[in-house]
Amino acid sequence: MIYKVYYQEDAQEVPVRENTKSLYLEATNERDVRNKLKDRKYNIEFIQLLEGNYLTYEQASPNFKLENI
Question: Which chain regions cross the lipid bilayer (predicted)?
Fold first, then answer.
């Protein structure tokens, strides 16, 4: 399954919406996503499962790139 992760790069700072970034990751579930990203010290705001039409829409975006972890 493919997940879209919204995060802040610095977990020590207060989250600011304008600084929110996203990445795409293949994982079995949300816990697996968090385990794969735990060494990056991100402040994870939201993890969203992409499927169906929404996945198709995201894959058409030029920003779509799966992270290799």
Answer: none
